[in-house]
Amino acid sequence: MTLKLYAHPFSSYCQKVLIALYENDTPFDYRRLEVGDEQAIAELEALWPIKRFPVLVDGERTIVEASIIIEHLGLEHPGPVRLVPEDARAALQVRMMDRFFDNYVSTPQQRIVFDSIRPAEHRDSYGVAEARAMLDRAYGWLDGSMAGRRWAAGDDFSLADCAAGPALFYADWTHPIGEGFAHVRAYRKRLLERPSFARAVNEARPYRPLFPLGAPDRD
Ligand SMILES: N[C@@H](CCC(=O)N[C@@H](CS)C(=O)NCC(=O)O)C(=O)O
């Protein structure tokens, strides 16, 4: 049964799942949600009225939420790279770091970007300042955590690194990771060198003009 992924190459949560698929060379049909493709968007809405992506269709099942999709792939379509460890305690550490990147890096990053595309009279400068403060706290905590660590949860590339790649990629564009956070900067660089993430970043290159804050000329 072929997997079908509803996704957009420039979306951070879609890249998170693409990294997992590319890590294991898992075959899938890529249903691209291009801007203006009403048919693809209607299919997405029929599957998931919340209208957030990625969404994975596996036979009769529709799976939503990037982390859950990656967990599903590990259970139903495992490959040589295990992204969630079999050991329950090690898996908990991976899931904790995955939550950290979604909740405290991606969420404030998106809050800043979405604010920038609101009509001027609906902008929320207080909310944006809170989001920037959260990103600084997140960078600080992560810097200590990554000292002496190669990947987010230790020696092995995991679900948490799938989350970290796009989260730190766009967070740095949105609220630059200062030189004081050397371990975070080095980790972001390592992530960019990982072939699965490098491929996702390359596939998204043509969409950079869409970045509302203006994409920097790097990465
Ligand atoms: N919690 C969801 C978040 C998904 C999400 O926010 N996706 C964004 C793209 S990165 C989206 O669907 N944006 C469409 C919109 O905001 O209308 C997950 O982990 O998959």
Features:
alpha+beta; globular; four-stranded mixed β-sheet; 219 residues; 8 helices; 4 strands
Could you characterize the architecture of this molecule?
- The chain is of the alpha+beta class and 219 residues long.
- The protein has helices at residues 12-23, 38-47, 66-76, 88-116, 125-146, 159-174, 182-193, 195-204; strands at 3-7, 28-32, 55-58, 61-64.
- The chain has a four-stranded mixed β-sheet with strand order 2-1-3-4, sandwiched between helices.
- α4 runs parallel beside α6 (159-174).
- The chain is globular and about 50 Å long.
- The model has no long low-confidence stretch (mean pLDDT 97).
- Glutathione binds next to α1.
